[in-house]
Predict the structure.
Amino acid sequence: MSLPYLIVAGGTVLATGATLLWSMKGVTQLRDKEWDDLLQMLQPVHFRGLELVALDHIDPHGHQLQIEPGDMWALLGGPEGLRRMKQNADIMIALAAYASRWNMVEAAIVAERMRQDAIMLKRALFRIKFDATLHRRPIRFPFYLHQVASSYYLMLRRLLCLYEANHAGLHPRLAAAL
């Protein structure tokens, strides 16, 4: 009876290790890129839709059921928008780390905050993808969309504020790319 549990546990450990190594490989490759290369890798995300969904979650008002799940999905760009946010998340962290050339302490703190935001974003994206694979749309679907939007929005705002305070010359190009 314990052998199947051992096999499942071993498989889980191997899968987790492989995923971690694959993720670290991507981050390591980004670390070696120049600023212009990182900027070119960013894919556009519909900012106004993102902001509407994120602020609906981050800054609640009296009527907290303003945006329906289907509208959230559309505002975030559907599966393509979510894919872009996931890809951009690692690039934005690399851009924050790049800022350590001008301000080591603040850039390190901002990059770590952004890493934490990215973890929330990726967890929510995993749940959305997992539920889609099982062809179900649970009650938690809008919560996951809110988590994705608010995490990405916070990452974006943190990065822009970091560049505005530490390298105003690059800030306009970064803002235009995001």
Notes: DSSP finds eight helices and no strands in the chain. Residues 2-31 form the longest helix (30 residues). The chain has a mean pLDDT of 84.
